[in-house]
Request: fold
Amino acid sequence: MKIINDSLTISTEGFNDMKDLTPLVAEKLISHRLQDGLLTIFVPGSTAGVTTIEYEPGLVEDFSRFMEKVAPSNVPYNHDRRWGDGNGFSHVRASLLGPSLSVPFSGGRLSLGMWQQIVLVDFDNGPRDRAVILHFLGE
Amino acid sequence: MKIINDSLTISTEGFNDMKDLTPLVAEKLISHRLQDGLLTIFVPGSTAGVTTIEYEPGLVEDFSRFMEKVAPSNVPYNHDRRWGDGNGFSHVRASLLGPSLSVPFSGGRLSLGMWQQIVLVDFDNGPRDRAVILHFLGE
Amino acid sequence: MKIINDSLTISTEGFNDMKDLTPLVAEKLISHRLQDGLLTIFVPGSTAGVTTIEYEPGLVEDFSRFMEKVAPSNVPYNHDRRWGDGNGFSHVRASLLGPSLSVPFSGGRLSLGMWQQIVLVDFDNGPRDRAVILHFLGE
Reply:
């Protein structure tokens, strides 16, 4: 069994910006010539998260609105009072969604549904270049 | 170390239908004769999720009500306007909960708490037969 | 490749009590002399969860308030009506956040961001001694 630690760099705009990682991840899987195993996607940092979604513009907007409603940006956060970052809402959303996602692969293909994409969501309050770790365990 | 890719098929009713997978998963673990390792439960598809809960009828209802409150089915979704699926709420809930869960096992047993069950939650707006992947890494 | 099943015991106060596990986890990683692999943090039990956050007092409070708002403790739960535990809210929050988190490590170090800590959140309605499983797959 092999352990392969790879990564992507993704430029984001923040404010719930959602990026489809699926084609890049699938390419990496092929390049490492692994057939069966487990892929863990992990985003270092405390203002972004990963999940899956049917990546189409309507849902991208729906999910962004949902996050704005559930953890609003226009209410006071203690984080902002202490540190003046103005991104308390970003942190709360990121902790809620979580930084890691594990996807099995088999026969050289990710076990995703047909309408299911792996996405990075950047909740921060400005543009960032995000490192995303792709950790493969398999053979 | 072995990699074993197995699966379950679960019939669900949608609308937050929650199914206890624990006995089926425990049976699979025994049948593969693994002692120590990591199990990843992954649901392909973008309208269902997995988590753990104390699986009793009161909480099953509480969790369903919570999801209805936090991501209501009776508000407009852009997904529905574009595609007419009527299940925008299902997608948002599924992306929030997430499609994967990892549970260590040791001495041939899942490391769950006594009142903690592994559950599939189907958020879609109708009945489905769901594939659930059980990915074992262990020995 | 090695499979190492370790654990921590963490005393908590409940009511969203959040504990930073990062220094303890980093110590365990060093003690097992692993360089590359995947760590899964799993909390047995149905009233606690794990995630990452920038662990500073402002955000700890923000996250607690967020959880109180999204799944309030002062509304009726069917779980409480049936079992009289009074912790229906704890269960709902725990199922939402999830009991597992996977963090890759490389060169003997966890792949966390600089301001990103691994935390246990105990949602129960009283003090507990919590077991937290640290499951290492690596070499």
